[in-house]
Every structure is written in structure tokens, then in C-alpha cells.
Amino acid sequence: MSLNTNIFLNEDENLGPLYLDMVFVEATRPLFFTCVDCNDRMYACSCHCADGEKCQWVVAPTTCEKIIDVLTDRIPIRDVFNSSEGTTFLVTLYTGSSKKVVEQFNLRQLPEDILPTPGYYMEAEDGEFDEEIAELRNRQENAVIVMHNVKSFFASCQFFSIQVKLPVISLTETKFMEEDSRDYCLPVAVGV
Amino acid sequence: MDVERIQKIFPKYFENFQLPEAAIEQEIEVYRACPTGKIEKASFLNTYEENGFKVPPDKDIDDPQVYCMSTFFRLKDVRRFVILESKFQRPWLLARGHTTKVDGKSCKTRDWKKQRGSHVDWWLYVDAKPWMAFEETDYEFEYEHFPERR
Q1: A130-141 and A64-71 are packed helices; what angle lies between their axes, rounded to 10 degrees?
Q2: What is the pTM of this model?
Q3: Residue range A11-24, pLDDT digits in tens
Q4: Which of B83, B112, B140, B143 should we substitute to test contact with A (largest number of A Cβ atoms within 10 Å)?
Q5: Distance between the two ends of chain B, CA-based, in angstroms?
């Protein structure tokens, strides 16, 4: 679960909660950025409109790979949203309201002009997004691959390096003395 | 009112917030995306006036950036801004110019808050004419002839 506390969207029946992750373009607010949910699933977000009436974002499920592709100019910015595997969302905050409204759409239902202009790339400078790309690749390498078949559910896994905080109990005083942080390297099996 | 006689006063609604200390009268080479497609007053309004004297719902009334005019000192950032903002459709007008001492106070956003990119905040005086310091240009021309501004 993400420890990010910078919340972008509180839990909604359709989506969320979402936490601000990486910002790639900003002006007076983040314009193109990613968010993650409680299961570390990633979403591409674009703020296409912010005026006296509302702020509105296009939010689409995405992957580390797609974000790396857009940051390295392999695909145009718009394609991050075009190629999303799942439903696209419009998140709107209206003036006078404190709660964002989430609507679910098929990408083809959305007006053309609210998506990034087609055919344009990030045209990143050398090294501009090195830090973000390294982080995304690190996430890719540490991802758990979960597969299932018709007959049974199973998971393949990789070894995780995790830190576990354990209470230390004094045998003489029979009380918790302190927390002991240790590094473990454990195989983790995930059942689905 | 000519340049020499612009009074160095801000609009009354500037009482809503405090200017960052980094904001001073200075000249910064910047680009401006013109929402009307022309170099004219209507394309050089501060965001508050552009929004009909309203605060966007994601901002607080005392946020200085509610009242600035947005510009960028890097070409790629103004282009990315236009790609993402739905009010800008092809063709859009790119203007090159600079912040001026007589029209208000300006600073790079990164000088007063944590932010990536090249956004420049420009807080304009009453009766300022910032568009007078800009001229129309072309993205490809700027990209080719001014690599240091990319």
C-alpha cells in the first residue's frame, strides 16, 4: 500500500483514493502527472481545464512502461491515455464544492479537445526525467506477477527485500521494550 | 497612459494575498501562449481576470498564483502547456518577449516554491500593458535559432 499522503482524490464509488505520485508538467498546478491507488496501481492524469467554474482532469489507468515510453519520446503524450487498458475517468471539482465528482467513460466518448493534442511528444531534454525513469524501472523490476488459470489460482513471485518492525519483549519485565527494525529477504507468495 | 506614467499600484484584489519576496521588478525573457490568437490585452490578462474575477476551486483565495499572469522561460514548457490545456487548439499563437519593470513584479516560480519547469509568475500593475513587450513568433523558428531557450 502506498505511503504517499498527498491525496489527489478521496475514495469514490468509481475510483480512488488516489495519491499524487510523479509530476512531469506543471504551471500554476500539476498538468501532467501520475497518481497511484492503495494497491500501487498507476494512473495517468491530465488537467485540461482550470477556471472560475471548475477544474477537470482526465484520469486513465496506465503502466510504468507507458509512462517510460512517453518520457523517452517513444509515444506521444496523448497515447498514454489512448492506450489505457481500462475505463477512462473524468474527475471534476466544481466551484463551491469540496468534493471531486468522478465519471466513468469509454475513451471514445470523451470530447477530442480535452485530451492532449495528438501527435505531440514530451521532447524531453537530456536527463530531464532520469530520476523518474529510474524509479519507474525499479518499480517494474519489483512488481509481483500474478497469474491464474481456470483450475487454480497461483502466483509467481520474486524475492522482496522488506523491512519488518518487531516488538522486542523483555523476558524479565514481560513488557514491550522497543521496536526492532530488521531487514529480511523473503519469498512472498500472493494468493488471488 | 504612457509607460512613464503607469502608477506602480496593484489592483485592489491584490489585498487577498501576499506577494512572494522573490517577486521584483525585473526583466526575464519569457514566452506567452496567447489564448485569443492575437497579441492584445485580452491575451495578457492575469489568471484572476481571465477567470472572471473568480478563484479556481482547487486554489485558495490567498494563493499568489491565482493573480499572476503565466509565462514560461523555456520553449518546451509553453508548448507542453498548450498541448495539455483544452482551450488552446491549433493554430495557437506563441509570443516571445520579456517581463518588464514598469508593468509589474515577476519571478521564476521555482524561486519561491518547489516546482519543476520554467513557469514565471508576473503580477501586473493597474493599467499595465505587458503585451507591448512581446512579438509573435513561431515554435520551429525559436527551437532552431534559440537552443538555449529550449
Answers
A1: 160
A2: 0.82
A3: 888 887 999 999 99
A4: B83
A5: 35
